[in-house]
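Supplementary Note 3. Input sequence used for the single-chain structure prediction.
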Amino acid sequence: MNLSTEHADGVAIVRVGESRLMYPLLSEFSTAVTQLLAAGERRVVVDLSSVGYVDSATIGCLMDLYRQATAAGGALKLAGVQKRVETMLTMTGAQNFIEVHPDQSTAVKSFGAS
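The predicted structure, written as discrete structure tokens, is reproduced below.
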């Protein structure tokens, strides 16, 4: 899976470099974010700017990661969401919970000063 992690201003950024984020890639994606949370990261941005398609399992995975981050006293936010992905988030109601930002820098800034 094409996945990279970097840090900016105290925020962990997980960049998904796949055009479709769905099974069987979800396991590796979920593990990467879960490990960040387990390592003490509390501010996580998932950059989905390369992702043009997700399925319902992906939405469930994102909601689970959101719950894990929140339970740990942190936050998980999305950045660079394409229209089709945004439609799935809206249809499932996930956007009522997970903050969505137009790009990575806006999402990082939304956490405030580090």
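The chain has one domain: 3-108. The chain has a mean pLDDT of 96.
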